[in-house]
Fold this protein.
Amino acid sequence: MPSRQARRDDFARMHETLGVEIELAMLLPNEVDVRTTADQAFLDALAEEFGDVLAPAHVPRSKDI
């Protein structure tokens, strides 16, 4: 999973290329199945890295968005 610094680097490149400021306002995980250990670990890692912008809920694998 890319780190927060990797995202900042991406946003900086977009700013240099496009001349626009980009800020991550909310991260909404989708296609999540919390019954699996892998998906639960993924949500835990997202919470650790992006906790301040992580949505309070996720979109389960069983729903279309």
The chain has a mean pLDDT of 88. The two ends are 22 Å apart (CA to CA). The CA atoms of residues 9 and 20 lie 14 Å apart. The chain has two helices and no strands.
